[in-house]
Design goal:
Low-confidence stretches of chain A: 326-330
Shape of chain A: globular
Largest sheet of chain B: none
Oligomer: heterodimer
Mean pLDDT of chain A: 88
Largest sheet of chain A: 8 strands, mixed
Strand content of chain A: 15-25%
Low-confidence stretches of chain B: none
Distance between the termini of chain A: 29 Å
Distance between the termini of chain B: 14 Å
Order of helices and strands of chain B: HHHHHHHHHHHHHHH
Number of helices of chain B: 15
Number of helices of chain A: 12
Number of strands of chain A: 12
């Protein structure tokens, strides 16, 4: 077992809103080893993006962050701004959801690559350009030299995401956070981008966090999956174990909500009924209880703690876990 | 890019034509016949009729417009019947003054407005931001004659640092020329910077919320590079527009400031022409100033394309 690269310890994020404080992330603990992949899955507003912003220290100014984010032996929450800046882009890189808005529209692709490289590596401009061309070629951009002089709007969405990935990879980061990297892309491009990320990750031995609302994205790509709901991690397990035997009803509901090819036409999707709880009004019991078909009286009274299942490394927060014994293999 | 320039140039032709028509109509519709103005009270009807014939005033309006436009296109904007000076001569004499005043005023205005806007946007909502936004608002509501008088009182009367009024051409005494221009340019600039600052500040605050700024931060770029390279350029479109409008406005001279500081610029030429009913000068100067305005705005359009590649490539 290699050393832990990232540990998120008891991280909570509160955002002040006119209706009171919004608890976007509710005491989350996660960890990641070097070279491994963690998938964070949950529906919109579950706090997964806020959690990633907390790791990157890119939260809105008014947000209140507590807990520790230990990265490579340093607590990012308490790191001096200048040291944090030297870390970002070099050891800690990110790919955002929407490549249409994450690249600067008035700077050439070359500028946006070269500035990152020259900020962190001691390279003169010709060398940085050469490295940029290699990076663009590595992420599958045809005619990379010509691309350097182009602007983002001259490239398609898939191209732009490849460019954003090239920027993220430019200084060989130890950890790449991909925040819904394929959500804004065409379905045919999605698999290409995910495969590209997986390939580059293996090649560079870098750790990766994939944030997504789609369990299908992390299946087969992540080593471990954390399912988030209402700001909390509600189930966490090695990917294989999770898909073989999920314990949390919410995880099951998420999986059921993915359309499947083999279902007959016009079958309604088993969508999760109701809405996530109002994050400014925390519930006393389990936050999924109002939408859960297994919920009993106890679920509305007390919050289930994250606890271990029979499989090592598998944690879940539920009083009525499913598939504990009845079935093996899904 | 050439295509873009050509399209823009074609688009300003009808604008220039409309400007010439409006200028001509305004001058023609002013009460008082030019022949009466020239001949004075003692004119006999025969003399007036003869002069009207000589000046072509007996022709229909559309014919007079076409013949005037024809002359204008050949570079002949007419001649003052009082001084005998041509419009072009009169303007050529005055334009350096107004141009210099405009350039210095815009320069000082941008010099104050842009850094303050960036500093405010970088710390939006801070005490500094609130103080500067408030000061800008106060400045905006101060009329230029008041600013001028206060500046004269402080820098000319009390401190004796700068002359209150007067003018020498730059080519004769450069230093003295600049000293004469400091107070009038500062007066104008103090009215300009609040607009510059408010526009750029709000655009910068919007830009700083963009995903690409978050990405720039996550790339570990220096805060100064994020502000000046990543945020300033995409935020400056409105600023360029405002500056263009200011420049166009100041090109036409500034009545009050030129009068207070006794600067012989376009503004005073126009006032003189109005008082003496010198319609030829009036019409010619208004036309030239309007054309200048159109050309400045054409340059602004070009600058958009320089600032935003999406406009250059016809995407936005």
């Amino acid at each position: 077992m290699s050393a832990l690269l990232l540990t998120i310890e008891d991280v909570a994020v509160e955002l002040p809103t006119p209706r009171g404080n919004l608890r976007a992330v509710d005491h989350v603990d996660l960890s990641l080893e070097a070279g491994r992949t963690l998938g964070i899955v949950g529906e919109s507003g579950c706090g997964k993006t806020m959690l990633s912003r907390a790791v990157l220290q890119l939260l809105p100014k008014k947000a209140k962050l507590t807990g520790r984010v230990m990265f490579d032996g340093q607590d990012l929450v308490r790191l001096a701004p200048e040291r944090l800046r030297r870390l970002r882009g070099r050891d800690l890189a990110v790919v955002f959801q929407d490549p249409m808005t994450s690249l600067n529209p008035v700077l050439t692709i070359g500028t946006q690559l070269v500035e990152t490289i020259q900020e962190h590596l001691e390279l003169d401009t010709p060398a940085a350009r050469k490295r940029s061309i290699e990076l663009l070629a590595a992420v599958g951009i045809p005619a990379p030299e010509q691309r350097l002089a182009q602007y983002p709007h001259q490239c398609s969405g898939g191209m732009r995401q490849r460019i954003a990935i090239a920027i993220a990879l430019s200084c060989e980061p130890k950890l790449l956070i991909a925040d819904e990297p394929t959500t804004a892309l065409d379905v045919t491009i999605q698999a290409q981008i995910l495969d590209l990320l997986a390939r580059e990750q293996r090649r560079r031995h870098m750790a990766m966090i994939i944030i997504t609302h789609d369990l299908g994205v992390v299946a087969g790509r992540a080593d471990e999956v954390a399912v988030m709901y209402a700001g909390r991690v509600v189930e966490r397990a090695p990917t294989q174990a999770l898909f073989r035997r999920m314990h949390m009803p919410y995880t099951e509901a998420l999986l059921a909500a993915i359309p499947k090819l083999e279902t007959a036409p016009h079958t309604p999707l088993p969508a999760i009924s109701g809405r996530p709880p109002d994050p400014t009004r925390p519930l006393r019991g389990c936050s999924f209880a109002p939408r859960c078909r297994y919920a009993g009286p106890r679920c509305h009274e007390a919050k289930p703690e994250l606890k271990g299942a029979e499989m090592p490394g598998h944690l879940y927060a539920c009083f009525h876990p499913i598939r504990m014994t009845e079935r093996i293999g899904a | 890019m050439l295509n873009f320039v050509a399209r823009r140039l074609l688009a300003i032709l009808p604008v220039l034509l409309a400007v010439s028509l409006l200028t001509f109509l305004i001058a023609s519709l002013l009460p008082g016949d030019l022949a009466f103005v020239i001949l004075g009270d003692q004119a006999t009807p025969e003399n007036v009729a003869a002069l009207r014939r000589d000046l072509g005033l007996d022709q229909p309006l559309w014919w007079r417009y076409l013949s005037w436009l024809g002359h204008v296109l050949q570079g002949d904007l007419g001649r003052s019947f009082r001084t005998g000076q041509t419009v072009l001569q009169a303007v050529a004499e005055r334009i350096p003054v107004s141009l210099q005043l405009m350039l210095m005023a815009e320069f000082i205005g941008l010099l104050i407005g842009v850094p303050v806007a960036i500093a405010c946007a970088a710390r939006a909502g801070s005490a500094f931001d609130r103080f500067m936004t408030g000061s800008a608002f106060a400045m905006l509501s101060m009329p230029s004659f008041l600013t001028a008088i206060l500046l004269i009182y402080l820098f000319a009367v009390e401190l004796h640092w700068l002359p209150a009024t007067g003018y020498v051409p730059f080519t004769e005494e450069p230093l003295a020329n600049l000293r004469f221009f400091v107070l009038p340019a500062l007066t104008l600039a103090l009215a300009e910077w609040p607009g510059i600052m408010r526009v750029l500040r709000s655009d910068m605050i919007a830009t700083l919320q963009e995903d690409y700024i978050a990405l720039a931060k996550s790339k570990g770029l220096k805060p100064s590079r994020i502000l000046f390279v990543h945020a300033l350029k995409p935020s400056s479109l409105t600023l360029v527009t405002v500056t263009g409008i200011n420049i166009g406005r100041l090109l036409g001279g500034t009545l009050i400031v030129e009068s207070i500081f006794a600067l012989p610029g376009i503004g005073r030429l126009l006032v003189g022409a109005i008082y003496t009913r010198d319609l030829v000068i009036l019409q010619g100067v208004v036309l030239l100033v309007a054309c200048g305005f159109v050309i400045v705005n054409f340059i602004v359009d070009m600058l958009y394309a320089v600032l935003d590649p999406r406009i250059r490539h016809g995407h936005a």
